[in-house]
Every structure is written in structure tokens, then in C-alpha cells.
Design a protein that fits this description.
about 150 residues; about 95% helix
Length: about 150
């Protein structure tokens, strides 16, 4: 009878550990899917911003080229070219700023998700260790109570 009791306790302990590991796996998968979702949202936002900026740059470029084409003297042409060059520098600066902001946002989100995942894994490991200690075969009731 004692042997059957120990086998039952061992089986229950293994099942509890398996449940905890399965739970940990599901939580990790949830964190990963959440991180992927957040990353894709950030990428979508970045691409939409880029497309909008490119559309504005193309429209402004077309107007500047038309203005240069319509110029009748060299002074007006030089002013139009100067304005076009200034706009180009502004676009480059805007793109660099947008890329930096997007990269910083993605990095912050990834670091936060990684911290959550580590905390969750550590908590699950503590629970699994505690469950393993409590259901270990061959332990007396006093040892279990002390744990």
C-alpha cells in the first residue's frame, strides 16, 4: 500500500509540475504574441508616416519643378532652386527624426515586454519549485509543513 501511495504522490507531483510548465509555456507564448502585435503596430505606424511624408514631398517637388519651369528670369529660377534645396534638407531631417523616434519606441516596447516575460518566468519557476518540494515522494508530513 505504501508503494502505491508513493507512486500516486509521484504521479501527482509530475502532473502538477507538468501543469505549471504548460502554464509557463502558454504565458511565454502570450508574451511573444503580444510583442509581435506591438511590433507590427509600430511598423504599420512607421510605414504610414513614411508614405504620408513621401506623398507630401512628391507634391511639393512637383510644385517646385513646375515653378522652376515657369520662371522667366535667372533670379526667380535661383530662388525656386534654393527653396527646393531647403525643402530637400527639411525632408531629410524629418525622415531621420522619424526613424529615430520609431526605433526608440520599438526598443522601449521590446524592453518592457522582455522584463514582463522574465518576471513571469521567474514567478512560474518559483511556483514549480515550491510544488516540487511539496509533492516530493518520501517526505513526511512534518517536512511538508516546514516547507
Amino acid at each position: 500500500m505504501s508503494e502505491a501511495k508513493h507512486k500516486g504522490e509521484a504521479r501527482a507531483g509530475a502532473q502538477a509540475a507538468g501543469n505549471l510548465l504548460g502554464s509557463a509555456f502558454l504565458k511565454e507564448a502570450e508574451f511573444l504574441i503580444g510583442a509581435q502585435s506591438e511590433l507590427l503596430s509600430n511598423v504599420e505606424e512607421a510605414v504610414q508616416g513614411w508614405v504620408q511624408r513621401q506623398r507630401e514631398a512628391l507634391d511639393t517637388s512637383a510644385r517646385s519643378i513646375q515653378k522652376m519651369y515657369d520662371c522667366r528670369n535667372i533670379v526667380d529660377l535661383m530662388q525656386a532652386q534654393q527653396l527646393f534645396f531647403t525643402d530637400c534638407l527639411h525632408w531629410v531631417a524629418t525622415e531621420m527624426r522619424a526613424v529615430g523616434q520609431n526605433a526608440a519606441a520599438v526598443t522601449r516596447a521590446t524592453a518592457a515586454r522582455a522584463g514582463e516575460a522574465v518576471e513571469g518566468a521567474a514567478e512560474e519557476a518559483r511556483h514549480a519549485a515550491k510544488a516540487a518540494r511539496e509533492t516530493a515522494p518520501g517526505r513526511t508530513a512534518q517536512e511538508r509543513a516546514a516547507a
